Amino acid sequence: MQGKRQPIPKVATKIAGLDEILEGGLPQGRTTVVSGGPGSGKTVLGLEFLCRGAVAGEPGVFVTFEERAETIRLNAWSLGWDLAALEKAGKIILVEARLPGEEIVSGDFDIQGMLAIVAGQVKRIGAKRVVMDALDVLLRIYSDPKRERNELSSLHDWLTDQKLTSILSVKTHRDDNQESHYEFLDFMADCVIQLDHRVVGQVATRRLRVIKYRGSGFGTNEYPYVFGEHGIVLFPLTTTELTHQPLGPKVSTGLKGLDLMLDGGFRRASCVLISGNSGTGKTTLASTFTRAACLRGEKVLYLNYEESREAMISGMLSPGIDLRPPLRDGKLLIQTAMPESTGSDNHLYRVMETMDSFKPNHIILDAVSACVRMGSKQAAFDFMMRLISVVKERGITSILTNQVNIRVDTDEELSGVGFSSVVDAVVQLRFVETEQEMTRQMLIVKSRGSAHSNRRQLYVITDRGIEFPDIPQRPPVRAGKTRRKDGGA
Amino acid sequence: MSKTVKTKPHAPKEGPDHYLLRLFIAGNGQNSLKALANLRSLCQEHLEGRFTIETVDVIDDFQAAVRDNILITPALILVAPLPRVMILGNLSDRQKVLLALRVSEDIS
Q1: How much is the pTM?
Q2: Helices A377-393, A344-358: crossing angle, 10 deg rounding
Q3: Which is deepest, A56, A146, A216, A266, by most CB within 10 Å?
């Protein structure tokens, strides 16, 4: 028999994505332990928690046992937080609690001095939050684990008595057996968060995991996070329900012939995959759509993971697609990146930032096949799923190109990394060899919520762009109904 | 509760061999009381007539703890003669304290 759980009071961290995982925030007036290896962002997390609190009217005290106060200020500055100003305004106090290192020890001692300083500062500014950064450094003065436990326990009691919402961070090393070392700390705290910084396929990735949360539910997955411009950004895919926008009205592909085949064009807010071998004209087709959309006054964000901006612009001039005017007008934004330059999480963060500021109507991703170089097929899949999920929520049309090396027929293989369930339309481009020549053919493999031609359509790429020698046919009107009338099959 | 007090058993001569000792304690904690007792007896025995003990209770005066970066109590600072020395703990190891305070040569 289980009683209904009383919701415990929480303090929102306002760190992007974290409160969703913590189902509201950190436990109010209680202790949270954040552990992680060097470079995992423990200091940043604590710092952001305090800065966001201070701005929202909850003063805080930051105690640093390892870094110098000046380093902490610089660290905050790089995240866009003016710590010095917050200190001046009496909203944050930075306590540099670094042990001198060369002191002589004679007999027993305790950390009352540190507690007195923190208590004094807390009282002075009416602090509600306390962060103790690199507590492991302070604990080094105890060679006896039993003494260490006693001190931790009295620290915990003191923080709880003072009703302070606190974060204690400790450094852990994965190789040595420190996990058991801080077992007591994890046991004592009400909430335990682990930060993990690892390298997968030569690309650094960071993951956050909530280990425990006394009296509360929490997201139990590992969540990727990056250091954004204003602190930590997490990408929780916690929403179990899909909040994608319904597909919108038709939007021209920029090609009359293709519009005919698609009964008017792509649907707005849909995800379109252009799949084909190298040289079939995937970028040309995507650029054709781009230019047409920009000419209508719509905004397009073109993500190119294959070639540089300049190479792409000059490359598109040969089939007669001039992307320079829309670039000048600010209708088109080309964002390029080497896929292997950073992890998929950072790529996603960069795209999201751009989407927030540029607010595109359509987004082109060229190419899915290059995304695998972000680390692994799994990394590419995570990146695509999250990106498509976000653009669909915002009602943005997305066009993805994917290079395939062999003749493929299944959707899974068409998309390359197996996300075909979220793809609404697939345009397949392929070379067809005949006795006399090599020709190109276009086929609409699928087009959700729309009639479409099921004929392979011959096309050529000239200096005026993609052209169809034979005029494509509209899909048979109400094909479904006709079939039903005929008795189906 | 002890307040910040100066114990001057004898009028200090303030000569070059005069010892100014600052002891940081935390209320009536066991270690704090022990440290104070240990320091007094040590001084009376080895530094008679040439020492001043300043006792600072960090619970009353946390700003003093901030100024001298006192995280651990009890903590003894040898303010003069220079160079400064900091000794942590309840000062129960007298030999170690004497050595650190550079007093042990005097007795030999």
Answers
A1: 0.70
A2: 20
A3: A266
